[in-house]
Amino acid sequence: MIKKLTALSLTAIIAISTAIPTFAMLPYSTPPTDTPIDGGTMIIGVLGHHGSGVFNPLFSSGGYDAFIQELILPPLLVVGTNMLISNYGPASFEFDAEDLTLTITLTEDLFWHDGYHLTLDDLLFAYEVIGHPDYIGHRFNQNFERIIGMWEYREGEADYISGIKLSDDKMTMVISYEYFSPSMLFGDSIWSTPISRRSFENVPVSEMEWAAQSRHEIVGYGAFILDDIVSANANELSRNYNFWLGTPYIAHLLVLAGDNTLLENSIIDVLIGNATSIMQDIPYHDNFSYIAHPNTSLGFTAFQMSKFNPITGEREFDAQRTISDINLRRAMGYSINEQRIIDTLGRQSAETPAISAVMPFSGMVYEEMLGFSVFDTDLANKILDEAGYTKRDSEGFRMTPEGLPMTLTWAVHFNFVNEIIVPMVIEDWANVGIRVELWQNDLVEFFTLTDLLFHNQQWWDFEIDDIDLYDMAFFLGFNPTTVWGQYSEFNATGYASEEHTAMLDRLASLSAIDLDYAQAVFRDWQIYFYENAIAIPRRYTSMVTAVSNRVANFSRRPGNIREVSAMAVHLWQLSSEPRVTPQNNPTITAQPDFSATNLLFNAADQVFVDIMNMKANNSTELELFLPPVHERDFYVMAFDADLALTHYDVYDLVSSILASTVMLHLAAGQIEPYVPTTIDAGETTWAVFFEDLSPGGWSFVVYFRLSR
Questions:
Q1: I need a surface site. Which of 64, 89, 547, 644 has the fewest CB within 10 A?
Q2: Which residues lie across from 131 on neighbouring strands?
Q3: Could you say which architecture CATH assigns to the domain 587-707?
Q4: pLDDT level of residue 429 (50, 70, 90 thresholds)
């Protein structure tokens, strides 16, 4: 038996394939520049997700928040290009396969952004929060229970986690486990992002998610420091002069979240997100180029087959639900024309239909199985007919085998890509006679959906019963238990069986360190997942980043963060090239007729009073009493006399898209104080009113949508 397992030897033992789907002709990084700027501001747009304003990794979720966290609070253990944890970061690790221990050692002298030393006591604090009885986040799962003493601590039977020990100098931490599994190579059961104990010393665990220390006062140790939360969707960061790998070249980052109109309404240096918007929009700008890195998550359309048991407080598999019929689920899988979606989105070089619920980078994809990547309406119709779905209603949709009307409800989060593809999928299902409607008749906000599915608030448990299908993407790594295990918080399907649990247990066992054994079990699991239609894997993707010609040394590829070819944020550079000017730059029209909108401008006085009261009370909570206006049409922005981005957004669903434009025009003096102004952005006209209070204090902008 191997006594000591290091990062190198583990890689050799597992011998995991690095066959990752990528853009064959696209580089991983941009080249260096001969004319770098010492400092400067890089403006980065992140597509596809709106921010939550929560940057504490113990509570946050979503791609935008995760990107901010990479910059301000990265993990101590960094993953390599094959997604295995490595010693590239400021800490090293070593497994002891006989004693079942993991030793983490800080190898660099680290400082928090507030100047205090970072030690592994801060990492221990993260474990204490995750395992705490009052913890309401979604990081705790079955994998943490394998840490000795974690269950007793979680149940309130112990005041500390007996299986975690710190050295006297707090630079080494030893974690003892009940058992090992190969998934630990991908970081399962290993949390390596520290949380400043000092910062939260007076905050109860039950209140952490809403505390300022988890939001605008987050303390990190990364290459950049969070300066100002412009809104949940726009954040300003400055470089950390004490970063352990050296002072970053770039002085400031402005990170915006939104949809594809970011490129139209903002001056963007880097655009991160889904390939569709980037590949469709960037070709209009000659001074942009592409880089790529593998997407480590896989999207699913999953089936909600459970019901809430008010006696046990748990969700349980419900065989009586319409969607619990395996024949219906399999027919829906074969009905989706995934290649048509890829072609429509222009992603032929970026995506392929997923043949399995396993990601290719794991090296465990069973390539002989095609799964639901096969589009076969004849087979779907045959399955439905043989299962008794032969009766049709007056509109031609199938009824249940009992002859009852059948309408399935699908919950999908809002982004512009889903606006395109959801009607296509609903049409595919309709073509085989299955009626599907969107939950609440619309796409929903991402965090509304994750809260509904995964946070298990009791008042929502009955609402989940109204959902038959939902879309979500997950990072699966080497252990599908984290998503599809019976007790995983991320498994909202409710599906469970003894056979399925046994397969997942085998994949989590130390025996799976043997490559042949792991491949055999993964093969069986992939077939089982497909044959039982637990969910429909959708598409394997690569992530494309568009960068302007003034951006150098930029990469987002996992790997050695000390090198340019990986996400070495401290090495990002800007050249002296001119910044890109949007092709569809919004036009300014002064003094329009606002006779129909006086009510909103009258509300501006109340906004001012509320802002000044907030300033006087040193509060960050802004309560506004506004006239009845659609929530996506009215926003408020506040900032100080120097136009610093101190922005309080009443509704931050899409406001950062316009906010960035407003700030640019303000800085250029193109919006005059007290002069009502309109800004035409694409097909939307916005009204803007700017009240200038400088140099006496804050100023604010009220802006709202006039037309679409």
A1: 644
A2: none
A3: 2-Layer Sandwich (3.30)
A4: very high
Alpha carbon 121 to its chain's center? 27
Beta strand residue intervals within 320-443, DSSP E: 351-353, 407-411, 435-438
The enclosing H or E element of 276 equals helix 275-281
61: helix, coil or strand?
Answer: coil
Beta strands 297-303 and 535-537 are: antiparallel
pLDDT of 223 above 90: yes
Distance between CA atoms of residues 303 and 431, nearest Å: 20
Fold of the domain built from segment(s) 4-269+550-574:
D-Maltodextrin-Binding Protein; domain 2 (3.40.190)
DSSP state of 573: E
Highest mean pLDDT out of 120-134, 249-263, 440-454, 636-650? 120-134
Nearest CA to 425 out of 406, 441, 438 is that of 438
Domain ranges of the chain: 4-269+550-574, 297-541, 587-707
CB atoms within 10 A of CB 589: 10
Answer yes or no: is pLDDT of 392 > 70. yes
322-326, 329-333, 339-343, 631-635: segment of lowest average pLDDT: 631-635
- pLDDT higher at 534 or 449: 534
Please give the Cα distance from 67 to 273 (Å, whole number): 11
Residue 137 structure tokens: 């986040």
Q: How confident is the model at residue 585 (pLDDT cuts 50, 70, 90)?
A: very low
To the nearest whole number, what is the mean pLDDT of the chain? 75
pLDDT of residue 424: 95
Q: Which residues contact 26 (CB under 8 A, 6 or more apart)?
A: 290, 291, 292, 544
Per the structure block, which two tokens stand in for 230? 């412009």
Structure tokens at 410: 């699908």
DSSP per-residue codes, 452-501: HHHS--HHHHHHHTT-SEEEEEEE-TT-THHHHSTT-TT--S----HHHH
CATH homologous superfamily for 297-541? Dipeptide-binding Protein; Domain 3 (3.10.105.10)
